Amino acid sequence: MFKHSIFLRIYAGLVILVALVALFAYLLVQIINYQRAQEYRESLTDGVSYIISEGIARQPNEQQKLDWISDAADLLELPIYYVDAAKVELSRTEQKRISNRKAVVRYDAENSAASIIIGLQKDSKHLLYIKVDKIGERQMKALPIFILDYLVYYPGQEKEYLAKIQSNFSYPIEIVKVQSLPLDSEQVGRLRLDHSIILYRDSASVRGTTISIVSPIPSSPSEVLVLGPVPLFNWMPFQLAAGITLLSLFVLSLGVYGLLVPMQRRLREVNYALHRMKSGDMTLRLPVDGTDEMASLATNYNSMSDHILRLIEAQRELMRAVSHELRTPVARIRFGMEMLAEEEDYDYRLQQVDMIDKDIEALNTLIDEIMTYAKLEQGTPSLDFEKIILFEVLDQVVVETEALKTQKEIVLHAPSIDVVVDAERRYLHRVVQNLVGNAVRYCDHKVIVSGGIDDDGYAYVQVEDDGAGIPEEERQRIFEAFTRLDDSRTRASGGYGLGLSIVSRIAYWFGGKIDVDQSPTLGGARFTMSWPLKIQGFNQTKKKLSGFERE
């Protein structure tokens, strides 16, 4: 019982899924944190790299640039190299950052060290390469010095130029009054001695712990330069993430359990109905509740039962029609055999053999028509759609029909050689062949064959004749199997009444339709089959159906 329980199988799958989701969540957190950490490092260095680049650009010659870089290295206590840009391999992303005057940070997790690459303004042939193996108070307190060195060129306009470069920093930089800051007396005293101070602030908000760097401004003792607050990188706590994930998955499992119980009950109803069908009782119908997948399953079951009943009835009708159609050629063959047994004239015997051969060929034709119709009617044709030049199919059928020497005029209004349609060549050929053969059989003198693309963007083939036409009240009935009209289209004209039925089913499987009306040119019947110019998912789905849905 447990082995065949859909609940246990689905729940076991959910347990495996839970483990996979937990593993995926852990890996995703690591990947996201790595990317966040990289973006965090780059955001901290972008502003400083811009200021350093501006400082070097102000130096009038190569030697002064090197001296400025040497002073900056001493200030930061970090090695800074003035390197040839051609010797540094940059990725496309790194090149884009350099061109946008942003820093490139390459972090080495094994050695806990980073390399910072800075592009230089007005000097595309060189780059600054900084090796960073530590970040301490000395490096942080040196940052305001570079900004103040930049502002010294704009006396009296420090705040305006500070606002201009703000966009290069991911944290605020501003000049404020000393009195506006929450500083104690010791911190104020250090500022008066021209020492920078670092302020740490803990907060229960999303920002968490932040750092601000406060540096005195030599030209304005009452004001200070403030960098920050800069939030410290906050790694997502794994324990909290794991706990929330497991709790969410547990609640999800309980919810899925509640959903599976009614689903299992409805599946039992479907299983019971299928057992009834297997025993031959197809009268049971399932209730359709709601619009979910189970309701769709019940609807499909009911449609399948109705279709099977229709197929059984159609099979009975087909058997009755086939038995009726077979009687005539079989009777002629029997009569011919009896005549052969009694006749001694050699020429007459040859004539009877020839007639019997024609009857056997008629039987073969009838069997082929019945097999084709049955295959299309049962909803299981093997369709292989491809790009087809419509002119080739129409021209082939016209040439084949003219070779039969029917003494009828067949005119091809050929479409352009560029008209390409989606179709199954064998069945499209059968459609045109049946329609042309039908028109030749019932026309007086002339048949017109045409095709192309209509105004709605559908492909079409069209056959019209100058015969007596089809009465309007009979135009739908002629597509039924073994249907032949008794007036202008008499049994003496030949055929078995399956040709148009086959055309109708092929049109259905092409996703199109077949229409008949009066030819405005010749006055007889005009048959038009149209189908989508590009067949995508329609027929691939139809091939898998068993004909449950019919037009």
UniProtKB/TrEMBL annotation:
It holds the Pfam family HATPase_c. Residues 263-313 form the HAMP domain. It is a multi-pass membrane protein. Residues 321-535 form the Histidine kinase domain. The keyword Kinase applies. PROSITE patterns: HAMP, HIS_KIN. Its EC number is 2.7.13.3. SUPFAM superfamilies: ATPase domain of HSP90 chaperone/DNA topoisomerase II/histidine kinase (SSF55874), HAMP domain-like (SSF158472), Homodimeric domain of signal transducing histidine kinase (SSF47384). CDD domains: HAMP, HisKA. GO terms for molecular function: kinase activity. The chain crosses the membrane at residues 6-29, 238-260. InterPro entries: 2C_sensor_his_kinase, HAMP_dom, HATPase_C_sf, HATPase_dom, His_kinase_dom, HisK_dim/P_dom, HisK_dim/P_sf, Sig_transdc_His_kin-like_C. It catalyses: ATP + protein L-histidine = ADP + protein N-phospho-L-histidine. Keywords: ATP-binding, Cell membrane, Kinase, Membrane, Nucleotide-binding, Phosphoprotein, Transferase, Transmembrane, Transmembrane helix. This is histidine kinase. It comes from Acinetobacter albensis. The lineage of its organism: Bacteria, Pseudomonadati, Pseudomonadota, Gammaproteobacteria, Moraxellales. The gene is bfmS.
